[in-house]
Amino acid sequence: MTTLETRRVVGAGIDRVDAPLKVTGTAHYPNDFSYPGMVHAALVGSTVAAGRIRGIDASEAQSAPGVLTVITHLTAPRLERGPMTLLGPSPPAPMQDDRILHYGQHIAIVVADTPEQARHAASLVRVEYDPAEAVLDVDDPRAQIVENPWGLDTERGDVAAGFAQADVVVEGTYTTPDNTNNPLGLMATIASWHGDSLTVHDSTQWPHNVRTTLATVFQVPESGVRVLAPFVGGGFGAGLRVWSHVILTALAAREVKHPVKLVLTRPQMFTSVGHRPNSVQRIKVGVTREGDLVAIEHYGMSSVAMEDDDYEPVSFGSAVAYDCPNVLTQDRQARLNIPCPGSMRAPAEGQGNFALECAIDEAAYAIGMDPLEFRLRNYAEEHPLLGLPWSSKALRECYREGAERFGWSRRDPEVGSMRDGRWLVGYGVAGVSYPFYQVPCQARASLRRDGSAYVRSAATDIGTGTYTVMTQLAAELLGLDVGRVRFDLGDSDMPYSPQAGGSGLTGALANAVHTACRNLVREFLDVVRDDEASPLRGAAPDDVTVTDGRLHRVGTPEQGESYTDILARHGLEELSADGRSTPPRAEEIGMATSGAFGAKFVEVRVDPGLGLLRVARVVSAIDGGRILNEKTATSQIVGGTVGGISQAMFEETATDAGTGRIANATFGDYLMPVNADVPDMEVIFCGGPDRATAVGTKGVGEVGLVGVAAAIGNAIHHATGRRLRALPFTIDQLL
Ligand code: MOS
C-alpha cells in the first residue's frame, strides 16, 4: 500500500481546487438556485421578548399584491420537534402556540411571487401582544438556573487544601458578551416538494442533519429528503443546527405547492441562527512561590434560551490545560428570553480560555516568574483527567518555537517599561489546549475506466478547504495526480458525514477517505487475484503500492499494471469501495486522543492618553497533527486569529435591557475588524502526525481563534499594568 510518507501531495500548499469556480462566480451557493414556478418567503418576527400573541391579523397582508399565503401559529399544523443530534436537541418546532419567548421569534411566514412582495406583505401583518416582563440578565434572580447542564463538571484533589497550600492566590471575574456568528452569506433555504419527497438547498454545515430533521418534523421517509449544500457562504457555527426558518420554508412550500425560497435578512441573522452566549466566569488560581500550580477553581455561568439547550461548558478547558493536583470546574446556565444560542467559533473554549489564560498570567506575575516559563513549568505531560499519555502534544514546541519567532526574549519583564514614542508596548502569551470533537464518518471512492477517481461524502466546505485537502489525500492514497481526482460533497444522498464543526470534520473525513481508498485498492487486487494475465495475481494489499495510476509490487515497479488496464481487461467501467472512520477510544488505544494545541504571542501598542489599542503582531504556533495543506491550514489559523482579534476588541451583540431587542443588528453597528485592524500574522506548525488515527490529522478550524483574547489582555497588562477582564477591550477600559 502506498503510505502518506512516500509522496509529496499531502501537505503541499496547493491552491484550492474550487478556486476557479469561486472567482468566476460559477460556485453556486444556496440562494443562487432557482426552480420553475419558485416563489419567495419572508418572515415576521416578534417585537417583544416575552408574553403572548393576543391577536394576529393577516388580512391586509393576505390581500397584498402577489401574496399566496400567510401562515401563523393559528394556521400552522402541529409539527414534531426535530430529533436529538450528536450536538444536542433540536431547537423547538416553530409557531406551535401563542407564546413569545424571545425578540425576533418567527411568528408568521408570508409567501408571494417576488421577494419584495413577500417582504412588503410581512410588514402588513398586524400583531397585538400581551407582553410579559422579559428575563434578560444572567444575574436576574428570576432566571431559572440549569446546573451542570452537560455533566462535564469536574473535581480532582482537594481544592480548599490546595489554596491553603498556595503562597499566592489570584482571583477575578471575567465577562464575555453575546457575539453573533455573522457568516458573510445570508443564510438561505429553498424547499421543493414532490409528493412526500422534498429537495432542499440550505446554508447548512451538516446536510444529513437537515435531512433527518425535516423527515422527523414532517413525518416523511428520510430516503425521500435530499439536502444540497455544495457551497456555503461561511458558517462560524450558525449552520450546525436546523433552525426554524428552514422548517418554515419547507412548510410554506408544502402549502403553496411551489418551490419556495427564503433568504434571511442581516437583522434576522442576529435572532434566527444562534449566537455565542454571554458568560460570567469566576476563576481563582493558587500557586507556590517556586511556581507550582496547586489549585484552580473555575465557575462559568452562561445564558441559554427558555426552551432550548446549548453546549457551552466554558470552564471545562481549565480541567485539562495544566498539571495541577487540585482543580474544580463548574458550569451553569441561566434561562433567559433570548434567541437560542448555539455554537459559535470555538464555542465555550473561546470564552473559557480567556479567563484561564489571563488568570495564569496574573499568577505568574504575582510570583515574579516569566509567564512563558510558568506555563512550561506546569505543563501537562499526561491528560490530567484520564492519567493517560496524549496521542500527540507538541505544545512545548509551540511555546519554544513561537517564542523564538516572536522574539519573546527581547521582552523586558517590567510592566510599562517598553515604549515606542507615545505608545506603550506590551508582549503577551497564551496557551491553548483544544478539545477533540470526534465523530464517525463515511466516504466512497471510485476509479473509472478513464483512470480518474471520484471520491465523495456528504460533508460541507464552509470555506475551510475540505474539497482541496480531501482531493490531495485521495490523490496520494490512490497514486494519482491531483488533477485526476474529483472530490465531491454537500449532498445528503452521499455517504454519511458529520457536521463541518467542532474542528472535527477534517480528521473524521480524512480517515474515512483513507479507508475507502485502501479498500478500493483491495478491490482491484481482488479482481486480479486469479488473473493469469496480471503481474499482480495473488498479491496481498501490503505487497502493493500505487504510483502514477499504476499498481505494482513494492520494490519491483516493473511487476504491475494500471487501474485502466485491469478495468479494461475485465470489462469493468469502474470499481468502488466504501470506507468509514470511527473515533478511537482512549481506553482502547491507551492514549488520550488529542485535539490541537497552540501558543499565541501578541504585541500590542497602547496610547494611554487616548485609550487606543492596536495589535501590532501575532505569532501563532500550532500543533494540528498532520497538516494536509500548509496553505489552507495557514489560512484557517490566520482567519481564526482575525476572529480572535474581533472577539477581543470589537464584537458585542447589544441587547436592549428593556425590550430584549438586538440594538446593533446590522453590519454598520456590529463592529468587526477591517484590514487596518489586522496586523502582521505569522503561523508556524509544530509537531507531527497524531498517533491515534491512520492519517494523524487534528482539526485546525478553531484553535486559531482561542488564546488571542487572553494574549491581547496579557499584553495590555504588560504595557499598562492593567488587568482587563471584560471583553471586548474598549477605549473606556483603557483610559
Ligand atoms: Mo464551529 S462553532 O464548530 O462551526
From TrEMBL:
Source organism (scientific name): Streptomyces broussonetiae
Residue span, Aldehyde oxidase/xanthine dehydrogenase a/b hammerhead domain: 24-133
Alphabetical keyword list: Molybdenum, Oxidoreductase
Protein known as: Xanthine dehydrogenase family protein molybdopterin-binding subunit
A Pfam family that the UniProt record links to this protein: Ald_Xan_dh_C
PANTHER family hit by this protein: ALDEHYDE OXIDASE 1-RELATED, XANTHINE DEHYDROGENASE
Highest taxon in the source lineage: Bacteria
Lineage, broadest ranks: Bacteria, Bacillati, Actinomycetota, Actinomycetes, Kitasatosporales
